[in-house]
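A reminder before we start the practical. When you read a complex entry, don't treat the lines as separate problems. The point of joint prediction is that each chain is placed relative to the others, so the output describes one connected object in space. Small molecules and nucleic acid strands, if listed, are placed in the same frame. In the example below there are two entries. Take a minute to note the order of the lines before looking further.
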Amino acid sequence: KQEVTQIPAALSVPEGENLVLNCSFTDSAIYNLQWFRQDPGKGLTSLLLIQSSQREQTSGRLNASLDKSSGRSTLYIAASQPGDSATYLCAGLNAGGTSYGKLTFGQGTILTVHP
Amino acid sequence: DGGITQSPKYLFRKEGQNVTLSCEQNLNHDAMYWYRQDPGQGLRLIYYSQIVNDFQKGDIAEGYSVSREKKESFPLTVTSAQKNPTAFYLCAGRQRNTGELFFGEGSRLTVL
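Here is the predicted structure of the whole assembly.
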């Protein structure tokens, strides 16, 4: 059974800092890994999607990497801003077997960027 | 306007009543998902469907039921058998070629 863990559970940083959020998964047979952002009381917004054949994806100040062999993904946020404050979640899409098509989420990292 | 549409946004239910949450999509997604989120916790998979007229149980399917009669629609019924139904419910659709997941805005169910 796929298990996804996110570290740290919460992070508070001053504005302008670069930061790294971590996501680890137990089953390397994933089709892709996706990072999301969730604001309080809202749905999830897709940030970056990394296919299993890729090693990283970039969008603006965000960069996500994927290392299937070690079961890890990281989300790098450059020059953080107060508007980045939210919960960040990662999810792996299972590639095959009885869990094909199933996505498993981590518990999320609550990020607070203070001015 | 397109995407994943969930309704209602807020719903109150008395104990012992069934309630159905709507999820509609116009993105031509084959696969659709229902997740439950409790305060301070991640998302837990209730049911998912990869094609019309087919669906699979997720990790916490007890007390819930779904149907997938049309590609565009994947309603979730929270039955009276669900012992702790108060939660935030999220529906999602998955794009076929990339596997990217897109979410609706969620439905918050409160049992009085």
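Discuss with your neighbour: The radius of gyration of chain A is 14 Å. What might explain this?
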